[in-house]
Every structure is written in structure tokens, then in C-alpha cells.
UniProtKB/TrEMBL annotation:
Identification of the protein by name: Inositol monophosphatase family protein
Top-level taxon of the source organism: Bacteria
Any one Pfam family match given in the protein's UniProt record, by short name: Inositol_P
Transmembrane segments: none
Amino acid sequence: MRTSAPSPPLPVDLAEARRVAVEAAEAAGTLLRSRVDGPVDARPKGSAGDVVTELDTAAEALILERLRAAYPGHRIIAEESGILEGAPGEEMVWLVDPLDGTNNVAIGMPVYAVGLALCARAEPVLGVVHDPVTGRTWSALHGKGALGPDGAPLTLPERPRPGREDNPVLAWTQGHQVRPDDAAAFRLRSGVEARCARMLQLWAPLVGWAMLARGDIDGFVGYLPEIVDLPAGALLAAEAGAELRRLDGEPYELGIDRPPSELSFVAARPELLDRLLETTAATATAL
């Protein structure tokens, strides 16, 4: 994914936007953490097995209130509320995932995150990922690097963890629209899994992106991913030093105006990327 700063200059102070987004994400995380251990009423969302809870809507309402107060003219695309228009001709767009991992929360598994991204002319320029379970927050600015929870620069470790040079740990994600009998998804997932020590399916892509940015895992593969949580996590990992490509090995362009078919990705430590692409590129020719 390209990380050069967009031009012309943005009509927003990104440092201030980062502050607003971090505070909104952390406030939503506090709300989620205070309620997640209680009864969770999960309702079906669509026909693909996704669910929604009152935690999603409450956290989203909190975030939207803060974004509207700080940037009343910006457009917003929110997981539960959909598209909220801004001022006429506005090019700044927020993407809000108030609870990435709702299915996990619904079954009592504490693996979830809050994600916000700010896009300029469809290109992500700011990403924030907050983990309510640990209280940690990571953020990134396009072309200016990533920051960890302590405010220090976040970069991939120079080497993978011992024993993982030839046996990487990977994560997998796929969009809710992908059916269980999708043959292409099965071939891709099986091919990648055969070449790693372990492949995680977290049901919370933002958690996977943060793990990649920290070096906890070595790569991440996504098939027809959801757009609302993709920019924040992908920007974080890219700015920390991970490399992103399309499944066929071509450069990855992350824009919220791109069709789902162009959003499938391979993200990995630089030295692992070619190995993963050997598998995904062969599969991609059959997609």
C-alpha cells in the first residue's frame, strides 16, 4: 500500500484529528468494557451470520456524537448507521467500526476492538485501533508512521520471533458476504494454511491488524474483506512496516471507493511477502 502523503494539502489538522479519534475510540472502549460482561442480546444482522447488539449501537452513538461535535461538516460511514452525509462537496470521510468482533462478544470471547479511520478523497490518512480488553490504543498517519500505546513510534521488529522464520503465524479474514461453500475462499485459505505454523481466524480483523503491526503475527490474508474496518487496520500495519499487495501480487491501493473484488489482500513482514504471494497469486488466477 502506498504511503506517500496526499496532495493538495488537507483541510484538517491530522494531529488534532488523531486526538479526537483516539479519545472517541477510548471512550467507546470504556463503555464496552463496562457492559460486555453482562447479558448480551445478539440479534441477526442480514442473512450471512452476522449479529448486532445494543453494545454496537451504544458505542457507535458515543463516537458519532464526538465526531459531529468536532467535525460537523465531515461525512461518516458507520457500521450500524450507514452513510451520514456532511456538508455539500465534503471530501473528508470518517469510517467507524464501534465494535469489531461482535460475534466474539456474543459468545463471551473477549476478542474485539474499536476502529476509526479518516479518509481524504477516498484515501485513508488516519487510522486508530483501540483494544478495550487491554486498554491499549494504536494509531497511524498516512506517510508519517505509527504510534504505540505509549506514544512511541511503532515499527515491526527487525526479525520474526524465534522459530518462525520458516513457520510463520498468520491471520485470515473474509467478508460477511462470503458463503461457507465459496470454493475460491476455501482454496485460498487452505493453500495459505498449508504453508504456515498456524492460521488464526479471529472474527475481529482490527485485532489481527494490530497484531501484525506489533510483530505478534507474521502475515494477514483477507478475502473480500469488509470496508468499514479495513482502512484503520491496514494503514496501521503499513505505517509500522508491513507490506501489502493484492492477491495477484500487484500493488495494493486502499480506497473506500474501490469495489470489494479489489480489496482482497496479502499483508506481511517484508521478507515473508514473496513466499505468501507464491500461494495467493496461484490461487488468484483461478478466482
